[in-house]
What we know:
six-stranded antiparallel beta sheet; Immunoglobulin-like; globular; TIM Barrel; eight-stranded parallel beta sheet; 13 helices
Amino acid sequence: MHLHPRTTPRRRRRILVGAVSAALLCTSGATALPAAARSAAPAARPGEAPALPGDLAATPPMGFNNWNSTHCRPDFTEEMVKGIADLFLDKGLKDAGYQYVNLDDCWALPERDADGQLVPDPQRFPHGIKAVADYVHSKGLKFGIYTSAGTKTCSDIGFPGALGHEASDARQFAGWGVDYLKYDNCNNQGVDARQRYLTMRDALKATGRPIVYSICEWGENKPWEWAADVGHLWRTTGDISDNWSSMLDILKQNLPLAPHAGPGHWNDPDMLEVGNGGMTDTEYRSHFSLWSMMSAPLLIGSDLRTATAATYEILDNKDVIALDQDALGKQATVLESTDGRWTLVKELANGDRAVALFNETDTAQKITTSATAAGLPQADRYRLRDLWQHTDQHTTGAVAADVPPHGTVVYRISAEGKTPGAGRSGS
Length: 427
Ligand code: GLA
């Protein structure tokens, strides 16, 4: 069962509250960003360096992270990571928009070297991390890594965290060619979260390398209220597990946060479980639909080397991905939720609306709304594209579907024909 980290015994063990002075962790104020990127970034608070460039994550990041598939197990290796990069190309996932190949926890040895440098685990990564990053880059993809804003990472094995080592770890990552950092929250010594995440933000900026910065403090300090100019995305919840109730629980926590998401600063309801075996394909289609409606990062969390055709079909649904990656960057809002029948609406850059009819219940449900209720203008007719069936239908405004238990029907709706206002005057 999914539990919020604060209530998880393992998590309680991992978070040590100590007394490291926040004064040791003050931000540098330096910036290596070009002037154009600086001016495009959200305004900084007085006395602070400006934010990271938003254009690095103008749409939610897409890629892979090993955690949901391997956790710390020995099958998390260089061979696996390179295999995933290969499959991004061989299976067309790169063309679908997947770009980042990211390592999670357990890539390092438990101790730093005599110079305080992080040391890749030679069993998992016998050629080091730079060699893997180079391989990923050679495929035209980007490479990500993980550490914690604490003295140690979250694994019980206790790998080194970056607290107090931010500048040198950031330089090491940049030197390896890292394009994305997931920065976790374990063993944080009770130091103020915003301060810890700012320190690494500025350390990353000081390297001069553009690095997507993913804040992973599980929503504990309401990062949606302070992190828009700190990171490109922030986790909003505890860890996802590969089961229906966990997915649902996270969905319900992330939906109300819609006003806080936008280009360059996204809510992160955690990585995808699609293909890991704990849900049905119908449930995985709902998971993928709902994450896309919520403009979530789409980080594949299953081992693609053994994935089924159905898993690939879900992850490669370009019509659904287009919702996630829509340039307007608006997270879906809840139009209606009654007895487990949900209607979500996402405004899209070209004026279309995406409507997800989601059935949380264990029996088939008819879910209905209308084009105008979804925010479309009055029109003679509307085109409804079913993004899983890949079929079109036309209506005069009704939007409805018989949705199977735990299923989601997603329509992309366009106004067609004459609209009473602009349409007629233009003809
Ligand atoms: C935390 C994070 C997870 C994962 C693990 C690794 O629990 O929330 O996403 O990175 O740590 O130990």
